[in-house]
Write a structure and sequence with these properties.
The complex is a heterodimer of chains A (495) and B (158). Helices cover 72% and strands 1% of the residues of chain A. Chain A is mainly alpha-helical and 495 residues long. In chain A, strand 1 and strand 2 form a beta hairpin. In chain A, helix 7 runs antiparallel to helix 19. The radius of gyration of chain A is 22 Å and the shape is globular. Chain B is mainly alpha-helical and 158 residues long. In chain B, helix 1 runs antiparallel to helix 2 and helix 4 packs antiparallel against helix 5. The longest helix of chain B is centred in the first third of the chain and has 26 residues. Chain B is flat. The chains are: A mainly alpha (495), B mainly alpha (158). Chains A and B meet through helix 8, helix 10, helix 17, helix 18 and helix 19 of A and helix 1, helix 2, strand 2, helix 3 and helix 4 of B.
Amino acid sequence: MLGAFLSVLISPLSLGLCVLGVSLGIGIGVLPGLNASMGIAILLPLAYVFEPVPAMVFFFGIYAGAIYGGSISAILINAPGTTAAVATSFDGYPLTEKGEAGRALGMALFGSAVGGIVSTIALILLAPQIADFALAFGPPEYFGLMVLGLSLVSTVSTNSPLKSFVGVFIGLLISSVGLDPIIGVPRFNFNTMVLMTGIDFIIVLIGMFALSTVLISLEKSIGEASNFEEEITSQLPSLKDIKRCWKILTAGSILGTIIGALPGAGATISSFANYGLARNMSKHPEEFGKGNIEGVCGAETGNNSAAGGAMIPMLTMGIPGSESTAVMLGALMILGLTPGPLLFEQQGKLVYQMFGGFLLANIIFLIIGLFGIRYFVKILRIPNAILFPTVIIFTVVGSYSMRNQWADVLLLTIFGVVGYLFRKFNFPVGPIVIATVLGPLAEMNLRQSLIMSDGSWTIFLDSPIALVLIVLTFVSFLFPYFGNLSRVKNIKVDR
Amino acid sequence: MKNDEFKISIKNGEIVIAILLMIIGVFFLITANNTIPENNIAGQPGIGPRAFPVLACWGLIITSAVLIISRLVKSKYSGKVKIFEKEGMKRVILAVVGLIVYYFVTPHTGFIISSIVYLLFIYWVSGYPNKKLLVLLAVLVNLIVYFVFQVLLNVPLP
């Protein structure tokens, strides 16, 4: 397994694709409005070109690069490239105003790399154990797991669990379109062949995330671009700054990995939680919001460590806990791989190669971030009036190429408009996409369980694991009432 | 309120969306009851193909209803409004209408021509001033897309 792990690190193809993926990812992350899930979603068709491992290394590169890239615009122009970098701007931009942009960028890079590498180590150590445990899961346990995942996505990820539940049921309804998974009768196809095969969740995802983002940007701006002209050079943080932040780096990496592993709580929540943690641990909390390097360190360690953590439930049990991992799951499925314990058992070598790829992505972005920052800054000069219309063509071709079905472009348009309206009125779209992914699995496991038990629902009480998962589901409903993780979003900073 | 913008309170927007979702839920519920068999074949135990879609419909109807009631009773957004600038909305509507026209026209004209025209249209809607650059970009972007998908990925573009 060690050989498989190391083989990726020295493979020229993987290295090349990783450099390309990280560069594209940083570029995507730098641009306000574009993020990791959107970037991967529109580039998914490229998965067809390569073997699974190099393809996944490419996507891991985009994923890690985009989360870091968001911090660059947050620090330099106070316009976070991704929501995961909002907390970075609290202290990153004041540092730029003080003329210390290089210092802030250096700490963002270092914190991101440490967080990413620690969470990758956690992934390597924990994922096989969890997958081993999950081998004992049958349909009742999987059904319990899916229900818990859906409830956590709703109760943990947003400030409005009710709206998230609305989204979950929309997703479940979308996932019911097409052939029934057990006996194959058509459902909601309205006598059309297009809907007979169901609605590919990638189309829902590209519409809800990418096309809706383009529409929102078209509404906001004409020909706007940043006028940031300063020459920037990144640097690694000084020993003094590292000494000042080492506790935050350590605790933040662990907390971020744990938060990332929770379904629904992705990089954004982790960055806010770690920003709060950094403030609590700091000897100078009063300086937060005014340019404290510890704030940048906390936020950036948090968002990149969550990226590795989020891969744990996705790879071991096939549960995407966030938008980005939902897209990553899509990539794996395109490559003919089904995440879950059987993947670890049957294709262990490939899994370890993917682990190697994830580690490689985190090392490469440290190098590219250090030497390429001056070039990435120039991306900020691309006017929105050119950028976003161009993205539309990629959303069209991306969704068409999933099934070579032109009618999917109409579905894309519908989901794009729905996503736009939802986002305008603060309805989260993530739960819709995640429920579209988990819906068919939940239904299949539920019905298989009932066939096994001859129709008796007590099968879910007879299995201790399923019972625990169902109890946890009920407990998760209480989250909003005793302080959920999303409240960390409400951190107010004196500016 | 300025002439070039209109406002919708977030509360009203939420209620309108929730009502539409309830209608969709009821429509799909009726469709499910009329078109999807209730039981599995050959007396297989457990729930049939209709149960899960019906559950999703009821879930959507109930959560939307609760959302409407909760917003009518008390809204954390009361008093807050979403401002829609008319010019911005015009750009969004034009982009969507253009996309629908593009969808219907492409099978007749082929991907390259309609995509170049559509991209030029969206660039025009976006209002970027340098027209020569836009023409060049529209052609270049579509040629790249054609090369990558048709030639490299073997995706047969329409």
